[in-house]
Specification:
Helices cover about 15% and strands about 40% of the residues. It has eight helices and 20 strands. Strand 10 and strand 11 form a beta hairpin. The protein starts with a strand and ends with a strand. The structure holds copper (II) ion.
Length: about 350
C-alpha cells in the first residue's frame, strides 16, 4: 500500500459547473441526494441529515457472498489526508473496498485515460466523468462505486486485466453543492506469470457465481435477468455489453406500480423546471444502490440485499453527442423484488 496522489483537483478549480446548468447537473451523487440535485425537492442524505428531513435511505450494499469468494482485498481510502491505494498488483480477481472518513463520502472508478494526457487534464476529465456524468470516448472506465455512509466501506468484485489504471478517487460531503476533490493514483496491473505475486496474496481464479445479471446496452437499455429478483443478498453481474456508450447504475425503490414511463415523465418535468403535478416520483424514491461508470466490455460484481418491492435502475450519464441524459432517452428500467 502506498500514499501516492500525484495530482488533485477540485470541482471548483476546474469549473465544471459551467458546463451544465444546475438543473441538468444530475450526478451520481443522487444516490445520496436523489431528487435534491434536480429541484431541491428532497434530500435522501444520510443519517441525521436524512432523518431530520424525514427521508429514508436504505443502503442495500451487502458483502456476505462476496467475502466467501476468497478474493484478495484491494483497499482504497479517500479523504482530506489523501488517497491510500496499491500501486502495483498482479492481474486477477479482487474484492475492492472503498472507504472515506466521516463526514465525507467517497467515490472511485478504475479509469484508463488515453496515452499522452497531462495529469492535470486527466484529473479534470476524471472529475467531469465521476462528478458531472460527462464521459469521454477515448477513456476506459472499468467500474467503481460510491460509499453511502461515512466510515462504512462499500465493496465490489472486479477482474483487473494487465494495464496501467488510474484509481480515480474523490471525496465530498453528502450535501448537494459541496466541493468534490478528485485524485488520480496510478495502479499497474501486471500480467500473471510476469512477476511474483506479493507474499501471502492468494491467487483466486474463479469468477463469482452470479445470481442476477444486469446488462447495459448500446441502445440505452438495462436488461435484468431474472425478471423477478429474489430478495436477500444476491450477487449482481453488471456488464456493459455495448461498445458506444458509458453507463452507470443508480438504483432506487419506488412506490409499487411505478412504471419506467412515469419515472421518465417525472424526470423530464423536473429537468425542464416544470414541477410535475402532485408529489414528484423523485421525492418518493429511496436510493438503495449504485455502480460507477463502466465502458463497453467491462464488468463488475456487486452484492445487493434488496427487500421485496418495486425498484428502478436509472442512468444519468450524458450522451456525448446530444448532451441528453440517457434516462431521458429511455434508460430507465423497473424491476420487482419478491
Ligand atoms: Cu447510460
Amino acid at each position: 500500500m502506498t500514499l501516492r496522489p500525484f495530482s488533485t483537483l477540485t470541482r471548483g478549480q476546474v469549473g465544471s459547473d459551467r458546463h451544465l446548468s444546475a438543473s441538468t447537473r444530475t450526478t451520481r451523487r443522487q444516490i445520496v441526494t436523489i431528487g435534491a440535485a434536480l429541484a431541491g425537492l428532497v434530500a435522501l442524505g444520510r443519517d441525521h441529515h436524512a432523518a431530520a428531513q424525514g427521508m429514508a435511505v436504505e443502503t442495500a450494499f451487502s458483502e456476505e457472498k462476496l467475502r466467501q469468494l476468497g478474493y484478495p482485498a484491494l483497499d482504497i481510502t479517500v479523504g482530506p489526508d489523501g488517497v491510500v491505494a496499491p500501486s502495483e498488483l498482479p492481474e486477477g480477481w479482487y474484492l475492492v473496498s472503498l472507504s472515506a472518513p466521516a463526514p465525507y463520502v467517497g467515490y472511485v472508478d478504475f479509469m484508463l485515460p488515453p496515452d499522452g494526457l497531462d495529469i492535470e487534464t486527466a484529473t479534470q476529465q476524471a472529475l467531469d466523468a465521476g462528478s458531472n456524468d460527462i464521459t469521454r470516448m477515448d477513456w476506459g472506465y472499468a467500474g467503481g462505486t460510491n460509499t453511502f455512509d461515512p466510515d462504512v466501506p462499500v465493496r465490489f468484485a472486479i477482474h483487473l486485466a494487465p494495464g496501467v489504471y488510474q484509481v480515480a478517487a474523490s471525496y465530498y460531503l453528502p450535501d448537494q453543492g459541496a466541493e468534490e476533490v478528485m485524485t488520480l493514483s496510478p495502479l499497474t496491473i501486471t500480467a500473471a506469470g510476469g512477476g511474483t505475486p506479493a507474499a501471502g496474496t492468494p491467487v483466486a481464479v474463479m469468477a463469482p457465481t452470479v445470481d442476477v445479471r444486469l446488462e447495459m446496452t448500446d441502445d440505452l437499455r438495462y436488461i435484468v435477468t431474472p425478471d423477478v429478483v429474489p430478495s436477500g443478498p444476491q450477487i449482481w453481474e453488471i456488464a456493459n455489453t455495448g461498445t458506444m456508450h458509458r453507463h452507470h447504475v443508480v438504483m432506487a425503490r419506488y412506490p409499487d406500480g411505478t412504471t419506467a414511463e412515469a419515472i421518465i415523465a417525472d424526470m423530464a418535468a423536473l429537468f425542464s423546471g416544470t414541477p410535475p403535478a402532485g408529489e414528484p416520483l423523485a421525492a418518493q424514491a429511496v436510493g438503495v444502490a449504485y455502480a460507477a461508470l463502466q465502458s463497453g466490455g467491462y464488468t463488475t460484481y456487486n452484492e445487493f440485499d434488496l427487500s421485496a418491492g418495486t425498484y428502478a435502475l436509472v442512468c444519468y450519464i450524458l450522451n456525448v453527442q446530444t448532451g441528453v441524459p440517457h434516462l431521458l432517452d429511455g434508460m430507465v428500467t423497473v424491476f420487482t423484488v419478491a
